[in-house]
């Protein structure tokens, strides 16, 4: 246990004992620090001081673990399924767990139980957002003593201390904790990942989605992607695209080196799952039992899209694979309104103006049925759920990788090429689904209850 | 050349560390003089000064001589790779070819002298009405050539008028799928008619494309399959002495289904070689560095310019850390729609990217600046979170040891500190992360650093004196 861990744990316990929540209590601290900023030269930090927002503080842990590619996927002996993976899993990964609210013992209890993809990190524009990174160590590879970092990929005007590149700043060794502090000024969709041994740690699964909600949200209770009324939406779904090269994952489990210039993806994942697992609802990795879905315990995030007819749906999508993607939504027109966490609509800010002020740039949003995005890019698109056709329980529209990563298989193989980036938009009659209160929240229409994505729990 | 004669052995990180350190003692020439302020000396020329930023090869008459020739380059893992490339005028082989800078409206003459054992030619994608030996350029299907080729030891002269400002590639048009990969590529920059006050330059004839004249950078993106290059070296009997004598197989071929890149480069160098200065004597045939060196916006009001050119065969998804790049031009055309605004007025269609994907053959011009957004300061505005002590962190060699710009502290024991004056180093790299490797080993390849120096007043406050980047 480090001094730092001890200190923070005890402060949390103290606050709990005092009958206030940790976040509420610490928000006061954030306020004090921000108040010191009044009069800071040149930069209008004062608008942060004026922010009514409470500090948001999360804890996440990086470790290793096992996940499952689709049960019927074609075997590639000896690499897939990995003979070293305990049942019901198929593949060794590095993964992330949300440790927020856990005791220190509970935190270290997650070692070896990493999940792909990581918890959704999000906050509001101007919010004091702090993420504690805990390096829990690797259960399977005691010989690897790698440090970890969080790189908030795309954060504008970052300082190196919070940028998470180990060569250019600091990283957190096993058993220790490092705090990243963000005061994001630009709403939009980003991604985060470890930057230690980057090709390996990113590919092995230390990846997640991060997004910033605009100040406009605070005005009238509506939700917007950017500070532009044209970007209003009713439901939002975030997607992180990644890939799995079976050889690289096998090598990491079996203490073999990988020549990364031989990289070849086998599975293409949305939110850590491959089709058809993408269609399962969100799961809670801390649940006592997951029944038949036990194999997806450490792939908690669904890629399903639900909407009532006529609702506006925001798709946030980031690519942390190493391949370029062309994602097609069949049958529904999308409006591409954001790219790399910058709005594309009229009145978008000029470059390099601080604070970002609307400038002379024109509207370059486009209507499309397809989203292109290369490694390290993000897109925001909004569509209106079409009128329900009147037959069945839901109209289904496929949203899929036009590279058909999911049909690549040998002619003799079983499993119909399961394993790609493919999901569904399910459109229901009016008032079927209750209002969505958290990002990526999915409603279980059978059990009449919500399933939530990790990291979206209210604090 | 490389480890071929045993003079330079760089293996693994320790080797690179030693090598970088050596160059810190070199006499510092032309500190702060960058880009277009540099003398127009071709990189591979003997004794060319160390510098940062884009180095232009210029000519009063817009006439250039390119010698297609062979040579060797070195990679950070100690490999030495046989190349074809262009030498400028009387200089020796270099990779990539010299950056030719001309002015809008110039009548440009480029003479290609072929020192290779195979026919070769030049094409200029994005330029129109190019003539070869006075005739309009025609396909030569029989010679698998997109332009009129020069035979071995022969010469062809290409002429055109540089009608549009912007960034362009020049490259081999003969047996291109092989010759371009072998290294027959270079950059051509056409400067606009629009001229600014001292220190202000424009990319295009539009004031919105202004940049700091002293902060002009270029990133020519390429990749190399060393096995292919070795096969061509053997097939052409280059430096092969056998009995009986080696018989060249002409034209040399390579089974492109076996093509597998292992090195990815910016300006012909892989990280960390690419952060050393232009004309580094350790890289005699790779004259161009790729370090991007800026000041915060308060001290450098105009943005820097980075010209991206993809001379490779696949898309490169380039990711600049620290701030978005603003794409203001693509393929030698400014991103302004002349009639797209209200009432048919011009509208600015430039856009900001943290994933800067460049397609094969594409060029794109990016403005870049870094704003000290939070103005963190150890006294007046601390970062507000605890910096872990020595037992609770690991340090990287480019770090200042402090969160604050201009503050330099010792790093942990055992870490060599390459930070000079409390400056920030940010990564900029391909996010197809296997391309940010040297033959599969992470922390190399198509990766460079963006260096942000503390503003002069902050340097003064902390007693710092920032000069050149790493490698000086
Ligand atoms: Cu890591
Ligand atoms: Cu990244």
Give an overview in words.
The complex is a heterodimer of chains A (459) and B (472). Chain A is of the alpha+beta class. Chain A has seven helices and 25 strands. In chain A, strands 12, 13, 15, 17, 18, 19 and 21 form a seven-stranded mixed sheet that branches. Chain A has a five-stranded mixed sheet with strand order 14-23-22-16-20, with no helix packed on it. The longest helix of chain A is centred in the N-terminal third of the chain and has 15 residues. The N terminus of chain A is likely disordered. Chain B contains four helices and 29 strands. Chain B is mainly β. Among the domains of chain B are: 204 residues, Cupredoxins -  blue copper proteins (Immunoglobulin-like); 72 residues, no CATH class. At the A-B interface, β6, β7 and α5 of A face β21, β22, β25, β26 and β28 of B. The structure holds copper (II) ion (2 copies). One copper (II) ion binds next to loops of chain A. The site of one copper (II) ion (CU) has 4 residues of chain A, from β5.
Task: Present the secondary structure layout.
The complex is a heterodimer of chains A (459) and B (472).
Chain A: H1 3-17, H2 22-35, H3 46-49, E1 56-67, E2 91-98, H4 104-108, E3 121-124, E4 129-135, E5 151-153, E6 170-171, E7 177-182, E8 188-193, H5 198-204, E9 207-213, H6 217-220, E10 223-224, E11 232-233, E12 235-244, H7 246-253, E13 267-270, E14 305-308, E15 312-319, E16 325-329, E17 334-339, E18 342-343, E19 366-368, E20 370-373, E21 378-384, E22 395-401, E23 422-428, E24 442-444, E25 449-451
Parallel strand pairs in A: 1-4, 3-9, 12-15, 14-23
Antiparallel strand pairs in A: 1-2, 4-7, 5-8, 8-9, 10-11, 12-13, 15-21, 16-20, 16-22, 17-18, 17-19, 17-21, 22-23, 24-25
Chain B: H1 12-23, E1 63-74, E2 80-88, E3 100-103, E4 107-114, E5 122-123, E6 131-132, E7 135-136, E8 155-161, E9 166-172, H2 176-179, E10 185-191, E11 200-202, E12 210-212, E13 216-224, H3 226-235, E14 263-266, E15 292-294, E16 304-310, E17 316-320, E18 325-330, E19 333-334, E20 336-337, E21 347-348, E22 351-353, E23 356-358, E24 363-368, E25 394-395, E26 424-430, E27 437-438, E28 441-442, E29 447-452, H4 456-461
Parallel strand pairs in B: 1-4, 3-10, 13-16, 15-29
Antiparallel strand pairs in B: 1-2, 4-8, 5-9, 6-7, 6-8, 9-10, 11-12, 13-14, 16-24, 17-23, 17-26, 18-19, 18-22, 18-24, 20-21, 26-29, 27-28
Bound molecules: copper (II) ion (CU) (2 copies).
